[in-house]
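General statements about sequence and structure are easier to judge against a single worked case. For one protein, we set the task of working out the structure tokens from the amino acid sequence alone. The sequence in question and its structure tokens are set out directly beneath this paragraph.
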Amino acid sequence: MSVLHGPRKELRRVLIAGSSYWAEPTEDGLQLADGRVVDESQVRYLPPCNPTKILCVHTNFRSRVYEFSGKSEVPSTPTYFQKPVTALNSHGGELVRPEGSLYLNYEGEIAAVIGKPTRNVLPEEVWDHILGFAVSNDVGLQDMRDTDAGSMLRVKGQDGFCPVGPGLVSGIDIRKSTIRSYRNGMLVQEGTVAEMIFGIDYLIADLARHITLMPGDVVLTGTPANSRPMEVGDLIEVEVTGLGRLANRVVASPAPRAVVGHQPTDTDEVRRVALGNDERLPDAIRDARVQSLKAGLQ
């Protein structure tokens, strides 16, 4: 049965007293595979997948293109980057902003999780190769934007910068879903899957022309406009209709001990991406927002 068609099924992976279990949400709590039902407050969430790779599309929403360029022209083909598997995080996990950084951005997305070896497939065959979908947050430390020649390695690849969850869902038509992101309960980002430039089936078929996707692999499918920086203490929630709501909190850490390599920068290019169309605001308003971010570091 295609991943797009019901009945809806959701699996969550949780940790209880040091042991890992698969569970299904029910009206009474979470039902473990061994038959026990536990309250959600008793568990810690784990990612609902175990990827060998995490592949991501750069820009895939029309609103995001317009936000950056002010134009409606869209790319003719997608481009991609990769997150290390150590970036994987879960529902309830912490998002760490190192000392000295300003621009830790949220990006609400849909994660497509591969269900079987996938290579050289047609777009219409892709749906039978997907195990399920999950909510994701393609977190990026934009202060590192001026390095790594566009690979996004240190922008998007830092530990914990890929929360996925709370569960893995099949049996819904993801093409009808909407992504919404909330910062401390306030709606800050919204976009429908119908606004994607390249459909999920297109992205996976494109990648699988050259790369074998394995069970558990994650493909992140793009974010709408209005990705913005988060502050330490913020609760960031990403909700996708039919999938659920992923929640993570931002915490602070000391700066890395080794003062080598590229350091966080606050350049025009960094601000262009981190602040999106806020860059086109009057200088006084834009500068006030940057000063507010900087005040949060003190």
In short: The two ends are 54 Å apart (CA to CA). DSSP finds six helices and 20 strands in the chain.
